Protein: Nucleoporin NUP188
Amino acid sequence: MAAAGCLYRRTSRELWTILLGRSSMKDGHQIKAELDRYGDRLLQGLAYYRPPSTSSTGKVKANKNLSPALQELGLRLSKFLGLDEEQSVELLQTYLLYDYRGTQESVKGVPQDERQSQALMLKASMVDYYYEERISLLRCVLYILNYFQDDKHPYSAEFSKCVEMMEQKELFGKYLKQFESLCREEAPTWETHGNFMTERQVSRWFVQRLREQAMLLEIIFLYFACFAASPSDLLALTKLFKEQGFGCRLQNRHLVEPSMDPLVERIGYFSVLIFLEALDIETLMTCSLSDKTEQHPFSSEEQVCKEMDSVLVTLGDAPHHGPVLLAWALLRFALNADKVTPTVRKMGSTAIQLHIFQYLTRMLQSLRSGENNCTTSTACLCVYTFLTFVLTNLEEQVLQSQQDLVDTAFQVFAAPNLPDLFWNMEPTAGLGILLDSVVGMFPFHLSPLLKLFTALVSKSSAKKVYSFLDRMSSYTEHYRHKPHDILSHEDETLWKRQTPKVLYALGLGQTNLRIPQGTIGQVMADEHGFLVRWEYSYSCWTLFTCEIEMLLHVVSTADVIHQCQRVKPIIDLVHKVISTDLSIADCLLPITSRIYMLLQRLTTVMNPPMDFLSSCVDCLAALATRMPAKVWIDLRHTGFLPFAANPVSGHIISTEGMNAGGYGSLFGIEQSQGEYSITLSFLRLVTTLVKGQLGSTQSQGLVPCILFVLREMLPNYHRWRYNSHGVREQLGFQILSLIHAILNLSPEEEESTSTPNLQSLCIFSLTNTEAGQAVINIMGVGVDTLNAVMLTQAGSSGTEGQGQMLMQTIKLAFSITNNVIRLKPLSSAISPLEHALTQHGAHGNNLIAVLAKYIYHKYDPSLPRLAIQLLKRLAMVAPMSVYACLGSDAAAIRDAFLSRLRDNIEDMQIKIMILEFLTVAVETQPGLIELFLNLEVKDTNEGSKEYSLGEWSCLQVVLKLIDSQDPESSWGAPLLHRSAIAFLHALWQDRRDSAMTVLRTKPNFWENLTSPLFGTLAFPSESSELSILETCAFIMKIICLEIYYAVRGSLGDSLKKILKKFSEEERFTYWSNYVHSLVCQVAESEGACNSLTEYQQLLSAWRMFLMVATHNADVMHLTNPEVRQKLFKDVLGGTQALLLVPRSMTCLHLGSMLCTVMIILLRRWKSDLAAPEDILSSLTQILEGVLQKDQQLVEKTKARVFAALISALEIKPMKASEIPQYPQLVLNVCETLQEEVVFLVDHTRQEVPANDASEDKDSMETEDTGRIRQKDQRDGVCVLGLHLAKGLCEADEEGDQWQQVLRKLPVLPMLFSALEVSLRIKQNLHFCEAILHFLFTLAKTHQGAAAMAGAGVTQTVCLPLLSVYQLSSNGASTAQPALSLRKSLDAPSWPGVYRLTVSLMERLLKTLRYNFLTEALDFVGVHQERILQCLGAVRTVPSLACLEEADHTVGFLLQLSNFTKEWHFHLPQLIKDVQVNLCYLCQACTSLLHSRKMLQHYLQIKNGETMSSTATPRGQRTPQTPSKQPTAESEALELRQLRSVQHSLLKILGKTLATLRAFTPDLCQILQPLDLAQYNLLFALSFTTPAFDADVTPSFGTLLATVNVTLSMLGEMDKKKDHPLGQVLGETNSTVDNKNIKSLLLFIMENCFYLLISQAVRYLRDPSVHPRDKQRMKQELSSELSTLLSSLSRYFRRGGPSSPAGGLMPSPQPKGASAAKVVPEAQEPLIQLVQAFVRHVQR
Structure:
């Protein structure tokens, strides 16, 4: 806007908001500064707004900062409003800035657009704004006058100085002139104010003037209440009041409409009050009592008094005149009774005839109906003083009706402090005279005394009222005729009873009163008989009880109405006493206990007394605040409340069997009459019972009542008939208050009953029935309607009245909807409430848009705050676009949001809520957040996009809030600062790259963001603001996310400097100490802190910060070992402190969080940590503390402690003696395992379906991970506990400690039982693998292996292991997932379980040998098919999984081959099959190793590549055109796969040949006589190299080919380091060492030669072989071996190593393998052996 920068003056509405404390300016110094700055405006009042002038017009036209269109519009507005031109332009600018409903961009076009300019005035928006400014100015003055003497008000001192200034500068005179000006102002016309001044505008102008007149008079009244008025001031006022007829003869009275009558009456009332206050009656009474009337100001102003007489003598024709005439007449009489003129006497008599007390009653009722503020209290005090003056100076008989006087007193004493003032006065003066009068007529006239005492009850006087009525000394009754049992005095002034008299005709035994014999009574005769006042002492409370009993007796008679009228004041008094002082409730039990019977009896009469019943219900509601359970129980027996005929079922929606009770019949009568006093009382009663937190059983009884409200009242109350204005709004407020109370009940403990509780009932009804739509309709009232109601309410304060009631109702609807959405159970279906909330309407006509537009509401900041809070909730849970719902108003609403966010005086809570809403929108509302981010995009020369912040971007505001150098930043408001940082965190968390890019480029962004991390925080206390902890937590998370997202090199220099500074200034140490101190504080308080949320946020962020720091130590400069040790020590200490606290879920949760980061630090910083002994000692204590807690609550924590112990054991190898408390630690782990395994087995048996076994798949090749159950997790307690047990077992090298534990606890039987169950049903995969790993470690020692064998390990796993795999028809599955897509070979799988079991059998057999042989043979017998299938599958399925299983299988067979005789005896056929399959396996491995291309072909097929169908082992590949060329990464992956497979094949081949040696004759024995029948011929007598794709019988050619392959591989490794195999096998990062590979190749070669020689000798010595074949064999062997010897000799001459298993090979000339490299090649044992054999066959 053109001149927006010129706006420096605060608007009157803003000033009023500041004074009310609804802004961010809450400090007294700020208020003083505002009052000093704008005090002159307050002093001027409405005169601040000047009329148009020529000079002002010239200044506007000369202002170059104003556009011509804005000047023109300002001048037109000046004429229309009759306002100074400069002020009109300023008013227009502020309106466009603060109240205009369009976008700020469109503001510039408003002055140029004729239609929009006219709309500003024709639609009265501009006029309303101007009128509101004028009213706000007067409200500021009123507010200051109301509270400048209130010591409890926070700004009373500042207000007092302002009032002092205004009093010195003659506030009264200025405001009196303004009032005169308003009274005499002519109505505007179209000639004077332009064509826009229509009749409607004139009417609105007149209403505004009436309101201003009333407010000016109210200000003058309050001013006179504080400062004395001079007689001349009063004379001037009186003349002015007479001129305008106390509001009845206004200048423009022809414009008065019926709707304006309350304002006209208000003007008259304040005129009267000003007159009474200006007389200073209190001073007059004080002077009269001391006979110093000459000290009164009017005593010396005789001329003024005469003029006043002449002015007032003509009055008397209007009700307003009564108090004025009587007060003046009494003043004249009090000042000089002897000189009272007839004129004055006439004034007094005229005043009495005007029914002044009825007038005063109406006046106080009218003032209190709209609002009940300080003005009303001051008016009551003024009238109280007047009544006291009147009663002191006039005889009561002169006053008309005693009842009118009591009614006035009833209204007077409604003001606070006045009852106390009355009780502190003399009982014979003032209103004490009235009290004595009504006491004298009691109980003949029952109502006056009760009404007066009802008004006199206050917190400090309730007991006085009770005591006064408890000791009544007289009893007045009326007789038409003189009774016979009376003795009378001669003059009939005294009577004496001759017989006692029972006062109430009640039955025997009932409460009653009895006047005893001889009682004296004073007689006052009247025209109707005798009025006797007996001198009889009694308790009025007993009399009240008798009156209620009488009512119960006459319920069914015609006297019931009359008796109800007598009893109703009693009930009202009891209600007031109980609600004021609950301690008296017990004393009133005889009365309150009879109210239940009254309700029961009176609800059934023909015409129930509705007001009386309403009072009864109100009384019970007050009583229920003290004893809700008793009231509920007693009330339930009456049948008054709705009830369920049958027990409440679990069907919430059903109302079957519900009865409306006695209230239901009354409710129908009220609907027909249009009066709802009982319904309001019923709602108050039920609300009180709900808030009373009844027990769950009693709360169930309230379900019918709540159902009645939700089904009958809430959906329909707005359609009922109403006789009185405002009752509908009051009903809606009460209904919503009840629902709000229910939704805010503290959660009850879960019970087994299926009946619904009150909360679930409300939630279900609101989400699924018409009740929810009714709440939506209330929220849909809209800001325009609400603002209109607020403008039209008659009250002056703006903080009370009908508009406030509507506003509170809408706020309740917001809160209820928010709570319903928050508390409703999760469901996939959309409820009717959610559908109605989120449905789109045309032209923005939907609830979302209505909610968003509440941002335009300016009166109460809590209303838009609650609306935004509901928007936030809907944005979180509702599947809709807020942006789409806003439609074309979206940009304007955004500008309104940001305007309030930018405003430096805006309420802080609104700003916080706006930021929280935007924080949620980042994740859930992409369109809306883009609107608020308002990023402008520019295309750069490089073709990329460059972002910048738009003028109306929320980031502009957020950057300003976090700027520590900006005076308007949020650093003085921690909660606002936290919200701003939380919004930035949401941007990073949702990875809004465009916004992040812009923010990174902003200067000092990272410095401003991270400033809190470099400050020194005070240690938190109960009273400190802890949002700074959350702020720091969000900052840490933003840094972590930035490092995570950005490549290390792309981090901004600014952030790099910050991180370096963070390290250099030792902030790691500082924050570690701070977090550690917080943790210790929580531990010391056992989790009973009030700030756990903030602590948890900071702890979570610190945990993330450390995790990122461990992975990016160089970026975050966390490389100092001492700092690392310090951080880990604090984490470990904090974890220990928290987890050792017993019975605290909070400490357990926080400790579990710390335990996670401790595990990571243990794994990442192993080399920098201190000795593991100290760490293990602390972890052992932590484990003991955790094990003492409820085990169902600490399952995850136990798992994390186990993981930490595992990591600590991995720091360095340790023996059992070096581990602190090793025996106890082992015992704790085993005991925990025992409990967890039992639970796991039970859980498995319950959860697993019966048909699980049928779903098992062929597991030879598939990585079937099974269905991981909830309790069987990789990081579960059982699995980690077993891994920890494995680590502890490895430390016990001798096995002694574990032997003791195994003897003490049944660990092994329990584990075996669980393993058997899991294997049998093929569940708990991770658990099975962990058990087998533990057992494998335990089997390393002889004691452990023996214990396992003794516990029956074979019986446990042998047969159940069959369930793990299932053979296919062809023995192997051909479907295999791609190798590159498969998990690591070490990942849990059922084939892996089988492999581990085979390895375990191998280990046990190796350790126990003959002691385990029988079990081993049993295992082989059971699984022989699988074993044979595995050996044969290598040729067809050369995958890592298959090769790994073959490796384990051959290893087991290698151990078993040491017992060939026993094996042959038990399983003769199997040993033959194994021999055959081993030979074929040898041939398959050799073929695959020989043809690398064929092996690559297999791997590529498994990786999904298309191969040529004509490929041969030696042919060239002719692949189809691939979709993309192979990359360096894919080639490297293929090379690694090839390396792994080749290494596996070599290991299998070595073990296979070693196993076959057991089935061939020993070379040392075969030369001697030997039974050849026990050794089968393993290889065929053929020397042809077998083809891979042919099913060729293994032969000598196979062994020779194997030797050739090994020689070839050895040669390649030595010659070509750049060869693929050499590169792969020679990689420094490879797990396979080059030297070990060579040794393995030599081992294979040795075994080949051994088998070759042994089998050849076996052929030579076999008589069944033809000599010709033997001769051919010799020739072939001689030739082949000679060739191989020459190649072998060349290899050894180059320095090749000898086989590490050379000692295993028997040689004719035994040589040590250790000298292989230093002796000539001829001395190699291998070469010597082969040479000897060649010489032998050549002979």
